[in-house]
Each structure stands twice: as structure tokens, then as C-alpha cells.
Amino acid sequence: MLRTDRLLLTPYTPADEEEFVALFQDVSVSRWMGDGPSTEAEDRALFGRIFTRVYAGHRFEVWAVRAGGELVGHAEIKPTEASGGYEIIYALAPGAWGRGLGTELALALVGHGFGTLGLPEVHATVAAENAASLAVLGRIGFGHVRDIQEDDGSTTRLLTCTRASGADARAARARAARAAQVSRGAGKPSRG
Q1: Residues 21, 71 contacting (CB under 8 angstroms)
Q2: CB 75 within 8 A of CB 105
Q3: Global pTM exceeds 0.90
Q4: Shortest CA distance to 157 belongs to which of 167, 169, 142, 173?
Q5: Are 61 and 111 within 8 A, CB to CB?
Q6: How many angstroms separate the CA atoms of 47 and 152, rounded?
Q7: Which of 66, 83, 140, 142 places its Cα 20 to 30 Å from the Cα of 122?
Q8: Shortest CA distance to 148 belongs to which of 124, 118, 182?
Q9: Average pLDDT over the chain, rounded to whole?
């Protein structure tokens, strides 16, 4: 289980199947996942494999992402051939977009990779057209490593976050938050 200020990441339970399928059947979400949209039957089979293969075989970590008790997303961290290391994978339902939850979720996954798993770097693969995800990952310290040309002609960006680049990005965000707070008149920095 992982917890952030607004999110709770827990292993899926069988009762999550309908919400999982709804998330993956939403084309605005699934267009960015794997090979794109799948049939409902394929998504139900995928949900079943989380229990029969992933959890049963202790292969990697997969979580249901909840906000306020509601399932709002999906998250994983796993070794992948494309990255040559551990990759974070996440998706949020459109109702959860635009509130900073993607950044919060990505930071939690990276923190888990560096902390719990002890990884020196964490990777992500993102469709070159997915500007929102590329922006989120760039803000938290991911840098572009290379492009991968897919069989369908599309381009996927391989991004990497090292412990140092992640720490630099977190420090910059903290400075920006303090500056925004001061500019809103919410407080003055201490000279302490």
C-alpha cells in the first residue's frame, strides 16, 4: 500500500473489476495505454491476470488508485524490456485530471522505486503525442533518453529519472511553491 496526501494505492480486489474495466474502456484513457483500446473481454481478462499471474507470482506491483474512497486510476512499477529497468505506468480517469493527481501519483511511484525498491533510476515510456504526461514527468525530473519507433509508425518517448534529477526537481517545485505562497500574500519567508 502507498499513501499520498490525496491518494491511496492498494492491491486490487475482485470487487474492483467493474471500475477497472470502466477505466480501461474509456478511450480517452486507453488510447495512451499499451497498444491502445481493447475489447471489454480483453480488459476483463487483463484484470483476471493481475490475480492469477502478477499477484500470485509476485511478479511486480500493481495498484488500484483511490481518491476519497473512489477508484480513480491504475498504477504499476515493473521491469520492462523497452526501458532496460523498472518503468512506472499509471492512468487516471478523466474526472481526476487537472487537479495535480497525476503529478502526485507519479511522485509516489518514483519514491517507491527509489525508496522501497532501492532503484538508482526509474523509467517511463510515453507516446510522443501525450503532451500532458510528458509535462508531468518533466516537472518531476524525468529526462528524454531516446525515441522508440513503434510498428504502427507512432513514436514513444523513453524517459528516465535518476535519484539526483528527481531530487533537483522536488527542490525546484518546493521553491516555486514557496514563491507562489509569498506572491499570494499567504506568508512571508522566515529570516530565521
Answers
A1: no
A2: yes
A3: no
A4: 142
A5: no
A6: 26
A7: 66
A8: 124
A9: 87
